[in-house]
Design brief:
Blueprint (H helix, E strand, L loop, with lengths): L14 H15 L4 H10 L4 H9 L18 H13 L8 H13 L2 H13 L4 E5 L15 E5 L2 E9 L9 E7 L13 E7 H4 L4 E5 L9 E11 L3 E2 L5 H37 L1 E2 L2 E2 L4 H29 L5 H26 L10 H9 L8 H12 L7
Parallel strand pairs: 1-4
Antiparallel strand pairs: 2-3, 3-7, 4-5, 5-8, 6-7, 9-10
Length: 396
């Protein structure tokens, strides 16, 4: 079995082909065991070797059409890939952004933009890993962003600041959200926001500054400052002022992909806890023989199975082009809670050894905690479901 996606039958609906892809991903991930990730975590370094291997295998171009050098597969296949990456104990944080940000260019970019960039993204010649959306004073309230883009002839001049922009130091391109019309001058709060595809290689040192943010996990996150950065007008994606609508579909894809990672984490934690509970003997018996140990692991497994079903249902609807906001948000909610419950159970099962670096539990414990907060917090998902699905009064 090769580790190259192009050797698998390119039909997302073909279950056997997806199984082949899963097997190939597992084989690739086996080359990057816990020791690799622990070293990256200690050094706070980017997993360049892992990203390169996944790129060479064709996995980062899974959603790019074959006409542009990608595999032309659906989100369901991307979900399977990321699930397996996390189930193997690896971390796809350095991968997933390219999958969902690329969609904005694919769906709304000009033919010239797609012809120029998509083949290079598919081969790994350039990386599209940075998504400049969140700002210090706006947070999840995307319509309140203040970063501005002012048209001056053949260029736009960008001023402002983004925060929690992961992988900016390791990306060649950034999908940037900026206001081309101030909020107080827009007909509706979602109007006047535009999307730009910024060549970061040209922007660094010419009006764009990147500052790393050290966090509890090795997520390569940064804040990015724009000071009269000039970019060609051709960087505009789609129509000026319609950018907020463009990214909404990408946000659904992002939530589904993150849910897949959480499903994979759940599987890893449950297997890790089960293995330890079978082998660890205390008071003359395996600790897994005690219901106080076994039942939480069993519950975590059940939670993961339910979350997995919702995640793949959301991906199925997305691939069919059907509305899936409810399913995408529900999948992200259930999967992140299932992974966190499994993480807590796994750590408790290991006792003191769970805090030891060599077991990888504490690293994965920290990593999966992020998804209670990002890319959207649990409370905001509940607010969305309450208002838009259940018809309850808007809470914010």
């Amino acid at each position: 079995m090769t580790e190259t996606l192009t050797h698998a039958t390119p039909h997302a609906s073909d279950e056997a082909a997806v199984d082949q892809i899963r097997e190939a991903v597992r084989a690739l991930c086996a080359r990057f065991p816990g020791e690799y990730w622990r070293a990256k975590d200690r050094e706070r370094s980017y997993p360049s070797e892992f990203v390169a291997a996944m790129t060479e295998g064709g996995y980062l171009g899974v959603l790019i059409p074959e006409a542009y050098g990608g595999s032309g597969l659906g989100l369901s296949t991307a979900v399977a890939i990321l699930e397996e990456v996390h189930a193997a104990g690896c971390n796809a944080a350095a991968l997933h952004a390219q999958m969902y940000t690329m969609g904005t260019v694919l769906r709304h970019g000009s033919q010239a933009q797609k012809t120029l960039w998509l083949p290079k993204i598919a081969t790994g010649e350039v990386r599209l890993q940075a998504f400049g959306v969140t700002e210090p004073t706006a947070g999840t309230d995307t319509t309140s962003i203040a970063t501005s883009a002012v048209r001056r002839g053949d260029v736009y001049v960008i001023n402002g600041q983004k925060v929690w922009t992961s992988r900016a130091e390791h990306s060649d391109l950034m999908v940037l959200l900026a206001r081309t019309t101030p909020k107080d001058q827009a007909a509706r709060k979602a109007d006047g926001i535009s999307v730009f595809l910024v060549d970061m290689r040209a922007a660094r040192g010419h009006g764009m500054t990147i500052k790393p943010i050290r966090t509890m996990i090795n997520h390569a996150t940064t804040e990015v400052f724009f000071d009269n950065l000039e970019i060609p007008a051709s960087c505009l994606v789609g129509e000026e002022g319609r950018g907020f609508r463009y990214i909404l579909d990408g946000m659904n894809a992002e939530r589904i992909l993150i849910a897949a990672e959480c499903v994979g984490d759940n599987r890893w934690f449950v297997e890790k806890a089960s293995s330890y509970a079978r082998e660890r003997v205390v008071f003359g018996r395996p600790i897994g023989q005690n219901q106080g140990v076994a039942f939480p692991i069993a519950r975590a497994h059940a939670q993961g199975r339910a979350a997995r079903l919702m995640t793949y249902e959301a991906a199925r609807l997305y691939d069919l082009g059907q509305p899936c906001a409810e399913e995408a948000n529900t999948a992200k909610l259930l999967a992140s809670e299932a992974s966190w419950a499994a993480a807590d159970t796994c750590l408790q099962t290991h006792g003191g050894f769970g805090f030891a670096e060599e077991y990888d539990v504490e690293r994965k414990f920290r990593e999966t905690r992020l998804y209670q907060v990002a890319p959207i917090s649990t409370n905001l998902i509940l607010s969305y479901l309450a208002e838009h699905v259940l018809g309850l009064p808007r809470s914010y």
